[in-house]
Amino acid sequence: MKETENSTLYTDETRKYGKCMQTYIVIDDEQKSYILGSREMVDKSGTSTLDTFKDISKDITDYCHENEVNCEMGM
After folding, report:
1. What CA dihedral angle connects 35, 39, 23 and 47, to 10 degrees?
2. Which domain, by its residues, includes 59?
3. Residue-wise pLDDT tens for the chain (75 aa)?
4. I want to staple 24 with a disulfide (CB 3.0 to 4.6 A). Which of 36, 42, 61, 68 is the partner?
């Protein structure tokens, strides 16, 4: 994904069973989609949305460090 020059970050929020879920998806210039993660949020505020994205980004980074994988995000 890093070699991709044009990528778009999409977010999708939905309510299921009284819970607010947020999903982050990246689509590259070849229209391939990559789900970065999905989390429950407290509410739909900008702060909650950003905090959720930070948590998902940290999870990806932690996984890469623990497994000695190069997971540089070229965004």
Report:
1. -130
2. 8-66
3. 667 778 899 999 888 888 899 999 999 988 999 999 999 998 888 899 999 999 999 998 898 888 877 766 544
4. 36
Long-range contacts of 51-56 (CB under 8 A, 24+ apart): 52/22, 52/24, 53/11, 53/24, 56/24
Ramachandran angles phi, psi of 41, nearest 5°: -115, 155
Give the type of residue at 42.
V
Question: What total of structural domains would you count in the chain?
Answer: 1
One-letter amino acid for residue 15 of the chain? R
Rounded CA-CA distance 18/34 in Å is 26
Q: DSSP labels for 12-26?
A: EEEEETTEEEEEEEE
Whether 19 is covered by a domain: the verdict is: yes
